[in-house]
Write a structure and sequence with these properties.
With 363 residues, the protein is mainly beta. The chain has helices spanning 56-61, 130-138, 166-176, 268-283, and strands spanning 8-12, 31-38, 44-50, 69-74, 77-92, 95-104, 123-124, 145-148, 159-160, 180-183, 189-192, 203-205, 213-218, 226-233, 236-245, 255-259, 284-291, 307-312, 317-332, 337-344. Helix 2 (130-138) packs antiparallel against helix 3 (166-176).
Length: 363
Protein backbone atom coordinates (compact mmCIF):
# COMPACT_ATOMS: atom_id res chain seq x y z
CA UNK A 1 0.00 0.00 0.00
CA UNK A 2 1.48 3.44 -0.91
CA UNK A 3 2.45 5.60 2.01
CA UNK A 4 0.36 8.66 2.76
CA UNK A 5 2.12 11.99 2.16
CA UNK A 6 4.81 12.84 4.69
CA UNK A 7 4.63 9.41 6.30
CA UNK A 8 7.56 7.83 8.12
CA UNK A 9 8.42 4.23 7.35
CA UNK A 10 10.08 1.96 9.90
CA UNK A 11 11.32 -1.43 8.71
CA UNK A 12 12.27 -3.98 11.37
CA UNK A 13 14.20 -7.17 10.74
CA UNK A 14 13.40 -10.54 12.28
CA UNK A 15 15.04 -13.96 12.16
CA UNK A 16 14.13 -14.28 8.47
CA UNK A 17 16.20 -11.17 7.69
CA UNK A 18 18.12 -10.06 10.79
CA UNK A 19 20.07 -7.39 8.88
CA UNK A 20 16.97 -5.34 8.08
CA UNK A 21 16.60 -2.36 10.34
CA UNK A 22 16.42 0.64 8.10
CA UNK A 23 14.18 3.68 8.33
CA UNK A 24 14.80 5.30 4.97
CA UNK A 25 16.29 8.78 5.21
CA UNK A 26 14.35 9.78 8.31
CA UNK A 27 16.43 8.51 11.21
CA UNK A 28 18.76 5.75 12.33
CA UNK A 29 18.23 2.17 13.35
CA UNK A 30 15.35 1.62 15.82
CA UNK A 31 15.93 -0.34 19.02
CA UNK A 32 13.95 -1.65 22.03
CA UNK A 33 10.99 -2.36 19.77
CA UNK A 34 7.58 -3.55 20.98
CA UNK A 35 4.63 -4.18 18.66
CA UNK A 36 1.24 -5.35 19.93
CA UNK A 37 -1.57 -6.71 17.78
CA UNK A 38 -4.92 -7.80 19.20
CA UNK A 39 -8.20 -9.43 18.26
CA UNK A 40 -10.28 -6.73 19.98
CA UNK A 41 -8.14 -3.61 20.48
CA UNK A 42 -6.03 -1.50 18.17
CA UNK A 43 -2.38 -2.12 17.40
CA UNK A 44 0.31 -0.23 19.28
CA UNK A 45 4.05 0.20 18.80
CA UNK A 46 7.00 1.67 20.62
CA UNK A 47 10.70 1.97 19.82
CA UNK A 48 13.78 4.07 20.43
CA UNK A 49 15.80 5.89 17.78
CA UNK A 50 19.00 7.93 17.92
CA UNK A 51 18.34 11.53 18.90
CA UNK A 52 19.75 13.75 16.14
CA UNK A 53 18.65 17.35 16.80
CA UNK A 54 21.17 18.77 14.33
CA UNK A 55 19.36 17.12 11.42
CA UNK A 56 16.54 19.20 9.95
CA UNK A 57 14.63 16.12 8.81
CA UNK A 58 14.86 14.60 12.29
CA UNK A 59 13.46 17.80 13.84
CA UNK A 60 10.62 17.85 11.32
CA UNK A 61 9.75 14.20 11.95
CA UNK A 62 9.81 14.21 15.74
CA UNK A 63 7.65 17.21 16.57
CA UNK A 64 5.49 16.92 19.70
CA UNK A 65 1.75 16.85 18.99
CA UNK A 66 2.26 16.45 15.23
CA UNK A 67 0.62 12.98 15.03
CA UNK A 68 3.07 12.02 12.32
CA UNK A 69 1.77 9.26 10.05
CA UNK A 70 3.85 6.11 10.31
CA UNK A 71 3.99 2.71 8.64
CA UNK A 72 5.68 -0.11 10.56
CA UNK A 73 6.96 -3.12 8.61
CA UNK A 74 8.55 -6.41 9.64
CA UNK A 75 10.99 -7.10 6.85
CA UNK A 76 8.88 -5.79 3.95
CA UNK A 77 5.48 -6.81 5.35
CA UNK A 78 3.35 -3.93 6.63
CA UNK A 79 2.17 -4.67 10.15
CA UNK A 80 0.75 -1.32 11.35
CA UNK A 81 -0.35 1.86 9.60
CA UNK A 82 -1.07 4.62 12.06
CA UNK A 83 0.18 7.65 13.94
CA UNK A 84 3.02 8.56 16.29
CA UNK A 85 1.87 9.80 19.67
CA UNK A 86 4.71 10.25 22.13
CA UNK A 87 8.12 11.55 20.99
CA UNK A 88 10.09 11.86 24.21
CA UNK A 89 13.82 12.69 24.19
CA UNK A 90 16.22 11.31 26.79
CA UNK A 91 19.95 11.12 27.36
CA UNK A 92 22.36 9.28 29.64
CA UNK A 93 25.94 8.05 29.66
CA UNK A 94 25.19 5.76 26.73
CA UNK A 95 23.94 8.50 24.41
CA UNK A 96 20.85 10.38 23.30
CA UNK A 97 17.59 8.75 22.16
CA UNK A 98 14.01 9.58 21.33
CA UNK A 99 11.33 7.19 22.61
CA UNK A 100 8.43 6.86 20.18
CA UNK A 101 4.95 5.45 20.84
CA UNK A 102 1.97 5.19 18.56
CA UNK A 103 -1.10 3.26 17.48
CA UNK A 104 -3.10 2.04 14.48
CA UNK A 105 -5.03 4.64 12.52
CA UNK A 106 -8.59 3.84 13.79
CA UNK A 107 -7.46 4.14 17.43
CA UNK A 108 -8.10 7.88 17.23
CA UNK A 109 -11.80 7.05 17.68
CA UNK A 110 -11.07 6.14 21.29
CA UNK A 111 -9.58 9.59 21.98
CA UNK A 112 -12.01 11.99 20.36
CA UNK A 113 -15.68 12.73 19.83
CA UNK A 114 -17.48 13.08 16.52
CA UNK A 115 -17.37 16.48 14.80
CA UNK A 116 -20.27 18.64 16.08
CA UNK A 117 -23.30 18.85 13.83
CA UNK A 118 -25.64 21.77 13.32
CA UNK A 119 -27.96 22.58 16.20
CA UNK A 120 -30.90 20.21 16.23
CA UNK A 121 -29.09 17.44 14.34
CA UNK A 122 -27.64 14.24 15.82
CA UNK A 123 -25.78 11.12 14.78
CA UNK A 124 -28.86 8.91 14.37
CA UNK A 125 -28.54 5.46 12.80
CA UNK A 126 -32.09 4.04 12.93
CA UNK A 127 -32.39 0.94 10.75
CA UNK A 128 -28.65 0.77 9.99
CA UNK A 129 -26.54 -2.37 10.22
CA UNK A 130 -23.22 -2.31 12.06
CA UNK A 131 -21.10 -2.07 8.92
CA UNK A 132 -22.97 0.97 7.66
CA UNK A 133 -22.81 2.64 11.08
CA UNK A 134 -19.05 2.08 11.23
CA UNK A 135 -18.59 3.51 7.74
CA UNK A 136 -20.42 6.72 8.60
CA UNK A 137 -18.53 7.18 11.86
CA UNK A 138 -15.13 6.54 10.25
CA UNK A 139 -15.69 8.66 7.13
CA UNK A 140 -14.88 12.08 8.67
CA UNK A 141 -11.53 10.70 9.84
CA UNK A 142 -10.56 9.15 6.51
CA UNK A 143 -10.64 5.62 7.93
CA UNK A 144 -11.68 2.71 5.72
CA UNK A 145 -13.72 -0.33 6.83
CA UNK A 146 -13.03 -4.05 6.51
CA UNK A 147 -16.31 -5.70 7.58
CA UNK A 148 -15.88 -9.49 7.73
CA UNK A 149 -19.36 -10.65 8.65
CA UNK A 150 -22.57 -11.66 6.93
CA UNK A 151 -24.60 -10.15 9.78
CA UNK A 152 -26.37 -7.08 8.39
CA UNK A 153 -29.19 -7.14 10.95
CA UNK A 154 -30.21 -3.52 11.54
CA UNK A 155 -30.52 -1.73 14.85
CA UNK A 156 -34.07 -0.41 15.07
CA UNK A 157 -33.24 2.75 16.96
CA UNK A 158 -29.73 3.87 17.70
CA UNK A 159 -28.05 7.20 18.35
CA UNK A 160 -24.52 8.28 19.22
CA UNK A 161 -24.66 10.87 21.99
CA UNK A 162 -22.45 13.87 21.28
CA UNK A 163 -20.36 13.35 24.43
CA UNK A 164 -19.73 9.62 23.91
CA UNK A 165 -16.53 8.38 22.31
CA UNK A 166 -17.33 6.75 18.94
CA UNK A 167 -15.09 3.75 19.73
CA UNK A 168 -17.01 2.94 22.91
CA UNK A 169 -20.26 3.24 20.96
CA UNK A 170 -19.10 0.88 18.21
CA UNK A 171 -17.73 -1.69 20.65
CA UNK A 172 -21.09 -1.83 22.45
CA UNK A 173 -22.82 -2.54 19.14
CA UNK A 174 -20.19 -5.02 17.95
CA UNK A 175 -20.65 -7.11 21.09
CA UNK A 176 -24.33 -7.53 20.21
CA UNK A 177 -23.31 -8.93 16.83
CA UNK A 178 -20.61 -11.21 18.30
CA UNK A 179 -17.88 -9.22 16.55
CA UNK A 180 -14.56 -7.73 17.65
CA UNK A 181 -12.99 -4.50 16.44
CA UNK A 182 -9.33 -3.97 15.64
CA UNK A 183 -7.26 -2.51 12.77
CA UNK A 184 -5.83 -4.00 9.59
CA UNK A 185 -2.15 -3.56 8.67
CA UNK A 186 -3.31 -0.99 6.09
CA UNK A 187 -4.91 1.15 8.80
CA UNK A 188 -8.57 0.24 8.21
CA UNK A 189 -11.07 -0.60 10.93
CA UNK A 190 -11.52 -4.37 10.99
CA UNK A 191 -14.76 -5.90 12.31
CA UNK A 192 -14.53 -9.69 12.51
CA UNK A 193 -15.61 -12.85 14.29
CA UNK A 194 -13.27 -14.96 16.39
CA UNK A 195 -12.13 -18.19 14.76
CA UNK A 196 -13.44 -21.61 15.70
CA UNK A 197 -11.05 -24.15 17.25
CA UNK A 198 -9.65 -26.89 15.06
CA UNK A 199 -6.57 -25.52 13.30
CA UNK A 200 -3.97 -24.52 15.93
CA UNK A 201 -0.88 -22.81 14.51
CA UNK A 202 1.33 -24.03 17.37
CA UNK A 203 1.38 -26.75 20.03
CA UNK A 204 3.22 -26.11 23.30
CA UNK A 205 3.98 -28.83 25.84
CA UNK A 206 5.52 -28.07 29.21
CA UNK A 207 9.15 -29.16 29.28
CA UNK A 208 9.48 -29.28 25.49
CA UNK A 209 11.02 -26.42 23.44
CA UNK A 210 9.93 -23.80 22.46
CA UNK A 211 7.83 -23.87 25.65
CA UNK A 212 9.13 -21.23 28.04
CA UNK A 213 6.68 -19.84 30.57
CA UNK A 214 2.89 -19.77 30.95
CA UNK A 215 1.35 -17.50 33.57
CA UNK A 216 -2.38 -17.78 34.32
CA UNK A 217 -4.35 -14.81 35.57
CA UNK A 218 -7.66 -15.50 37.31
CA UNK A 219 -10.21 -12.89 38.42
CA UNK A 220 -12.72 -14.69 40.67
CA UNK A 221 -14.57 -11.51 41.69
CA UNK A 222 -15.62 -11.02 38.07
CA UNK A 223 -17.10 -14.53 37.77
CA UNK A 224 -20.89 -14.83 38.01
CA UNK A 225 -23.46 -17.60 38.17
CA UNK A 226 -25.90 -15.70 35.97
CA UNK A 227 -26.07 -12.52 33.92
CA UNK A 228 -29.28 -10.59 33.25
CA UNK A 229 -29.62 -7.74 30.78
CA UNK A 230 -32.38 -5.17 31.21
CA UNK A 231 -33.77 -3.06 28.39
CA UNK A 232 -35.34 0.33 28.92
CA UNK A 233 -38.68 1.54 27.68
CA UNK A 234 -40.54 4.73 28.44
CA UNK A 235 -41.62 3.52 31.87
CA UNK A 236 -38.12 2.56 33.00
CA UNK A 237 -35.88 -0.47 33.34
CA UNK A 238 -37.29 -3.91 33.98
CA UNK A 239 -39.86 -4.18 31.21
CA UNK A 240 -37.48 -6.04 28.89
CA UNK A 241 -35.01 -8.50 30.38
CA UNK A 242 -33.06 -11.56 29.40
CA UNK A 243 -31.33 -13.93 31.85
CA UNK A 244 -28.38 -16.16 30.92
CA UNK A 245 -27.05 -18.81 33.30
CA UNK A 246 -23.43 -19.88 33.69
CA UNK A 247 -23.53 -23.71 33.56
CA UNK A 248 -20.10 -23.91 35.23
CA UNK A 249 -21.22 -22.23 38.48
CA UNK A 250 -24.40 -23.63 39.98
CA UNK A 251 -23.59 -22.52 43.53
CA UNK A 252 -23.12 -20.15 45.26
CA UNK A 253 -25.45 -17.53 43.83
CA UNK A 254 -23.44 -14.72 42.16
CA UNK A 255 -25.79 -12.73 39.88
CA UNK A 256 -24.83 -9.80 37.68
CA UNK A 257 -27.30 -7.29 36.26
CA UNK A 258 -26.59 -4.67 33.61
CA UNK A 259 -28.73 -2.09 31.81
CA UNK A 260 -29.09 -1.22 28.14
CA UNK A 261 -30.39 2.16 27.11
CA UNK A 262 -33.56 2.54 25.05
CA UNK A 263 -31.61 2.58 21.78
CA UNK A 264 -30.48 -1.01 22.39
CA UNK A 265 -33.55 -2.60 23.95
CA UNK A 266 -34.37 -4.68 20.87
CA UNK A 267 -31.07 -6.52 21.24
CA UNK A 268 -31.20 -7.47 24.91
CA UNK A 269 -30.81 -11.24 24.26
CA UNK A 270 -27.76 -10.73 22.03
CA UNK A 271 -26.19 -8.28 24.44
CA UNK A 272 -26.74 -10.60 27.41
CA UNK A 273 -25.21 -13.62 25.70
CA UNK A 274 -22.24 -11.49 24.68
CA UNK A 275 -21.82 -10.25 28.25
CA UNK A 276 -21.79 -13.80 29.60
CA UNK A 277 -19.37 -15.07 26.94
CA UNK A 278 -16.92 -12.20 27.36
CA UNK A 279 -16.99 -12.72 31.10
CA UNK A 280 -14.88 -15.83 30.47
CA UNK A 281 -12.33 -13.74 28.54
CA UNK A 282 -11.99 -11.47 31.56
CA UNK A 283 -11.79 -14.03 34.36
CA UNK A 284 -9.19 -16.42 32.89
CA UNK A 285 -6.29 -15.36 30.68
CA UNK A 286 -2.92 -16.99 30.09
CA UNK A 287 0.29 -15.21 29.13
CA UNK A 288 2.83 -17.26 27.20
CA UNK A 289 6.13 -15.41 27.43
CA UNK A 290 9.56 -15.65 25.87
CA UNK A 291 8.89 -17.58 22.67
CA UNK A 292 12.24 -17.17 20.85
CA UNK A 293 10.71 -16.31 17.47
CA UNK A 294 8.14 -14.01 15.87
CA UNK A 295 6.88 -16.77 13.57
CA UNK A 296 4.88 -19.97 13.86
CA UNK A 297 6.20 -23.32 12.55
CA UNK A 298 4.78 -22.49 9.10
CA UNK A 299 6.88 -19.33 8.88
CA UNK A 300 3.99 -16.91 9.35
CA UNK A 301 4.13 -14.05 11.83
CA UNK A 302 2.13 -14.90 14.94
CA UNK A 303 -1.26 -13.21 14.67
CA UNK A 304 -4.30 -12.63 16.86
CA UNK A 305 -7.50 -14.53 16.10
CA UNK A 306 -5.68 -17.80 15.60
CA UNK A 307 -5.53 -20.73 18.01
CA UNK A 308 -2.76 -22.61 19.76
CA UNK A 309 -2.81 -25.82 21.80
CA UNK A 310 -1.15 -25.82 25.23
CA UNK A 311 -0.47 -28.56 27.78
CA UNK A 312 1.03 -27.05 30.95
CA UNK A 313 0.09 -28.76 34.24
CA UNK A 314 2.12 -26.19 36.20
CA UNK A 315 -0.32 -23.53 34.93
CA UNK A 316 -3.37 -25.71 35.73
CA UNK A 317 -3.78 -26.72 32.08
CA UNK A 318 -3.96 -30.40 32.91
CA UNK A 319 -4.49 -31.70 29.36
CA UNK A 320 -3.93 -30.32 25.85
CA UNK A 321 -6.31 -27.38 25.48
CA UNK A 322 -6.90 -25.21 22.43
CA UNK A 323 -6.87 -21.50 23.21
CA UNK A 324 -7.79 -18.43 21.20
CA UNK A 325 -4.92 -15.98 20.69
CA UNK A 326 -6.14 -12.59 21.92
CA UNK A 327 -2.94 -10.52 21.87
CA UNK A 328 0.46 -10.89 20.20
CA UNK A 329 3.41 -8.85 21.47
CA UNK A 330 6.63 -8.75 19.45
CA UNK A 331 9.68 -7.54 21.37
CA UNK A 332 13.17 -6.85 20.06
CA UNK A 333 16.21 -5.68 22.02
CA UNK A 334 19.89 -5.73 21.05
CA UNK A 335 20.19 -9.13 22.75
CA UNK A 336 16.92 -10.94 22.05
CA UNK A 337 13.83 -11.19 19.90
CA UNK A 338 10.78 -12.79 21.49
CA UNK A 339 7.00 -13.15 21.25
CA UNK A 340 4.45 -13.04 24.05
CA UNK A 341 0.99 -14.50 23.41
CA UNK A 342 -2.02 -13.72 25.58
CA UNK A 343 -4.67 -16.40 25.13
CA UNK A 344 -8.24 -16.99 26.32
CA UNK A 345 -10.78 -19.77 26.08
CA UNK A 346 -12.34 -20.21 22.62
CA UNK A 347 -15.77 -18.82 21.81
CA UNK A 348 -15.69 -16.09 24.44
CA UNK A 349 -15.99 -13.32 21.84
CA UNK A 350 -18.80 -15.09 19.96
CA UNK A 351 -21.44 -15.10 22.67
CA UNK A 352 -20.61 -18.70 23.56
CA UNK A 353 -19.94 -20.30 26.93
CA UNK A 354 -16.88 -22.60 26.81
CA UNK A 355 -17.82 -26.25 26.40
CA UNK A 356 -14.92 -27.29 28.66
CA UNK A 357 -12.43 -25.56 30.93
CA UNK A 358 -8.61 -25.71 30.92
CA UNK A 359 -8.37 -26.89 34.52
CA UNK A 360 -10.75 -29.83 33.97
CA UNK A 361 -8.80 -33.08 33.73
CA UNK A 362 -11.18 -34.49 31.12
CA UNK A 363 -13.01 -32.76 28.28
Amino acid sequence: MPLEPESVQVVIGDEHDPTTGRTGDYFGFPSEIEITRSIDTYSTFSFKAPFEPDREQFRATFRPFSYQRLECLINLETIITGFMLGVDPSFDANGRNVSVTGYGKPAVLGDVNMPPLDVGKSYQFDGFGLGRIAEQICAPFGIGIDFRSDDVKPFKKIKLDIDKKPQEFLVDLAKQRDLCITDTPAGEMLLWKSVEPGQPVLTLVEGTPPFTKVTPSFSPQDYFSEVTGYGKKKKGYGETRWPAANPWLLTPLRPKVFKLDDAERADVPEATRAELGRMFAKVATYKIEGLPTWRDPNGNLFAPNTTIKVHAPSAMIYRPYEFLVKDVIFTKTPNAQTTTLEVVMPGVFSGDVPTDLPWDEQA
